[in-house]
Amino acid sequence: MVDLTELSNFGITTQLTVIGRNPDEQNGFVNPPLYKGSTIIHKKLDDVEHMKGRFFYGTAGSPTIANLEDAWTHLTGGAGTVLSPSGLGSISLALLTLAKAGDHILITDSVYVPTRMLCDGLLAKFGIETEYYDPSVGEDIKKLIKPNTTVIFLESPGSGTMEIQDIPALVSVAKKHGIKTILDNTWATPLFFDAHGHGIDISLEAGTKYLGGHSDLLIGLTSANEECWPLLRSTYDAMAMLPGADDCLLALRGMRTLHLRLKEAERKALDLAAWLEDRDEVEKVLHPAFKDCPGHEYWVRDYKGSSGLFSIVLKDGYTRTGLENMVEKMKVFHLGFSWGGYESLITPVNPARQRKAANWPHRGFALRIQVGLEELTDLKRDLELGFERLAQEISVAPLQI
Ligand SMILES: *Cc1c(COP(=O)(O)O)cnc(C)c1O
Questions:
Q1: Ligand 1 probe mutation, 91, 165, 185, 208, most atoms within 8 A of CB
Q2: Which residues carry this modification: N6-(pyridoxal phosphate)lysine (predicted)?
Q3: pTM for this one?
Q4: What is the pLDDT averaged over residues 183-188?
Q5: C-alpha to C-alpha distance for 223 and 314, rounded to whole angstroms
Q6: Number of domains observed in the structure of the chain
């Protein structure tokens, strides 16, 4: 068995097979056992009085939770990881770790909508002021900094709108002003973007997406660098919002095949995006690996790959009825939130109403596409028939594939 101390001598796919388990301590079983529980029995009075040991009560963790935490810490190169019952839980945990009453925080205008709701609702209630910034602002973010600015929150690419941010520029301004950075790294995962290596203080992943990979799991993972780790851990301990042990095991299992599924999603999405770029109905393809995507040059510079989620903007002039006929009658793509699973999804993107700092420049309908594991020919045919329905004002009967 590869020793954990020599792990970095091995390739990343080998590392993914080794982390978070130890057959020598598992009676030889390949996978770790499932620990569930509240109470841990202690032998020493002193241990109980001083809450000693990594596992002194269920809320402090379990070997199952620790396996996933340690594996993720290894993968992200952070100083430590805590888990949450959802990706949104990780976002709240990260923000509550670094922001306090009276602070001003800067959030990208391309952010995942529930993050916006958290900032405008709960955080505002606790006296934290949110200002949204243009995702393509780069080092000009310094013009938005106030004496009480404590956090810059990044999400790259932006949810649905796909802007890649100039992360090194934002990190460098933040460091100069003693401001902490949080990155929602869900799209890239640590395999395609090294958040802590680029100076991000707290990085989070909705493991619900690619780590789970089968649309049967909600989990969030938050890692921190050396400086922010003690504060992140103590915020987590104060709230004790932890996922169930079964879900940790599902996430660990997903980790073994993460690179395979990501690579396949990447391959299919690149193929499909190129095909869509040639379609008459499509105005723009917003995929970080394509030139039309804002921040494409930063993706080329900083990222090691692209995953299976991208958006398209349709030409202006199609009707709402046409759009409904297109998406509601699809056979392979379905309407639904979340992504990173084995099934293809299509969802409308409509950021115009929410935007505060960066106007959405497009007039046509926009659609976000999650590419699953189905055959590319089936996906293209489904879209092709959908485009035909889009172009007809009113469709009479559902088309059959
Ligand atoms: C889905 C998603 C989340 C939230 O994850 P949940 O587990 O669904 O709460 C956070 N950030 C991004 C970018 C997401 O796509």
A1: 208
A2: 209
A3: 0.96
A4: 98
A5: 38
A6: 2
